[in-house]
Structures
1.
Amino acid sequence: MDPKRPIIEPALDEPLLVVDAPPVEKLPPRLWIRRRLFSNFYNSAITVVLLPLIAYLAYRGLLFLFVTARWSPVRENLTLFMVGRYPRAELWRIVAQLIIWSSALGLAWGAAVSGARFRAAQAGLPYREDPLLAKVRRYWALLSMLGLFLLMTQSYGPLLVTAAALAAGSLLKSLAARVPGRHNVLLWAGVGVLGVVGYQIVSGFHGNGWLWMGAPVALGVVSLLGRVEWPSQSRWRVVRLGAVVGVFAIAYAVYALVGTPGVGWDDWEGFHLNLITATVAIVLAFPLGLLLALARRSSLPALRVMSTAYIELIRGVPLITLLLMSQTFIGFFLDTDTPLSSLTRSIAAFTLFTAAYVAEIVRGGLQSVDRGQIEAGQSVGLSSFAVTRLIVLPLALRAVIPAMVGQFIALFKDTSLLSIVSVADLLFVRRVVHAQEAFRAFGIAETLVFVMLAFWAVSFTMSRESQRLERRLGIGER
């Protein structure tokens, strides 16, 4: 350790500074080939055998994609693949949702940059953002798939929508990155609001959506108010309660004034439905799995037995069985006059199934936390809840990032099983396309390849982001 460099110990309630790992040595192409492919006799033999095979398969694949494939079933039904039989008069809602969620992603990116720059300044370290070329390399799979979509469109509408979404996201990212890091909690509240608005612009501003919109704003306001030194705890509690009530009252008033119906997600179809289903199931399954993991390690026998029984039961049942059972059994456990839709039942099955696996992944991370870390937290007077929240969970979740992202990728790919319960996902829409008289027994391989590429682009990007996060956190290195 450099004796001239000051040692900075972050506070327990502040996130740790993430520093890039040391850069990997870059070798000239000739030296890289010699070291990686022809370093010894066995590697050379494998290279000589496999390279011609890989080159031939690449040639055949490119020949199929760009020369022999007949893409007319995809090109003429691209809207059907994306949104299914969604009411065409309401397509503006999907367009607005795309732009709003792109803005939310840009705002989240800017908030992350602002926070990282602020933490770097506190630690006395320089902050360096990745150049544009590095960002393109990170998302090349998604960008390639987006380019393929745009090449197959037969009008300028999708191109204009894509340009508007990218412009909105880039603008908010640029603005948010300039906000002082100590205030970026409000930026994250804005991300939550935009996320809810993006969902409700399609489903309609009604029901209990005001609760979901008010929650992130209330958390942000309470976090900022908590930084003020209040003369007494009683006054702080009153101010906090008043702020929360005020935020939710404003959100309720906004919903009462707007109150416009939308298109329920029973009519959401196509690849749009796969993305929404995976996102909702991940958002619901993660906290549920976290609670199950903590309950399984609880000192209370009742919690431990119930969580263990649930985890082992769900993990022992195939997902397709849960999907089929959800269409029949969930209604028996709910006392309601309005039956749940097939999609709602399916999302419940995905959530319950994934939560059991997330619980086991998190439990493995909890077991990897050294006992000395817990004792250190207790020695400075932290409660058991504070030790778990500030020490145990951050260390445990950091260690299980690869397994966690792998489970979420599996969940996204498993949404293709929705077609089995007659929910019109991307695979179901493909059957609808080939039910048309013009495309019966025509372009079957091409539509399968299109579906495969759509799932691969999202899954590969999630995997690359997981690997990047692992490198930045130094998982497996220290």
2.
Amino acid sequence: MTKMKVTDVLNEQQVVSKQRVADHGEVYTAKREVNAMLDLVKEETERIDSRFLEPACGNGNFLVEILNRKMEAVRRQFARNRFEYDQASAVAVSSMYGVELLPDNVETCRQRLLTQYLDTYRQHQSADASPDLERCIRFLLKKNILCGDALTMLQENGEPITFCEWTFIGLNGKVKRRDFELAELLRNVEYDKPKAGEEGLLFADTGEPTFVHLPKREYPLTDYLKLPNYE
């Protein structure tokens, strides 16, 4: 009988309990449906720095599959150069964001992503990630997967949901961090609506004034492995 990993079980589990369904409408998306939807944007899921936000991420079914695809892209491009692989894999993790209402799901999601990252790293490099790299990945997941309500745009502590923008500068290991409130980022929806009769895209040039996002906070350019030092 084939043994199933914990991550496989979580991927197939759609309901934790009837009570959670009644209280929170919690039903996880099965792996087959997850991949079918991600295939609709296949090129983006395989672009290492393409950003994804899952506003109701649950225990991470979508984000785990996105990480799988991104890490495979990292392997194809950088497997022979460990320094570049390490940085590109950090870029991949930094590009994924999630909001989840239930604290236990948040912790499970972060842990699944970390486990998936470390296991994949070991497969690709035939070695474990360094302690500094693992610490960096843990930090990125802590900042990018948040407990809150995407409808009210507030965290569980009542503070605005605030995400970090991680901008990696070339391949020299430097990254720029800027923090933005989610509500401010979504203000573009009102400014960039297409004109009547135009199909348009969210960020298309429709002739309307464009809102310039102002960061809540900016940090100095930093080596990506030292990001956890700037909490």
3.
Amino acid sequence: MADGVEIERKFLVKQLPDGIDANPFGEIEQGYLAITDDVEVRVRRYGEQSFLTIKSSGSESRVEEEIEIDGRRFGALWPLTEGRRIEKRRYRIPAGDRLTIELDVYHGRLSGLKTAEIEFESLSDASAFVPPGWLGRDVTDDPRYKNKRLATEGVPQPR
């Protein structure tokens, strides 16, 4: 992510790719402290690390600042996220051209949902990306699949 700007596309996952467990993965607990139309503030524990993240609204490109916090701070803030949480296993899959697909397999009330996100250096790189066959529909511009909505509303109903 360059200069605090995230350029990303998000896809549903039709099927898990062959050999998924050969890729590095980690468990994520994520909860939202504040959600508005313009900004979200969340805490996340990813393995042994914890973060406070502030994101602007947007789809393919948006401001994102992530600040590492210690376990004590995470523990103090976590109860404030009650009712606005997600749990998932994240796989990091190399995709060539210095790209990594972050494939999320959700747990708990979001169980069964699988999404994949890819971050890019530029909007032109994002537009040129050709997804592998195991990825499904591009949901980058579908607000129902934003993690903040998943945390508050659950798995979206098909349209």
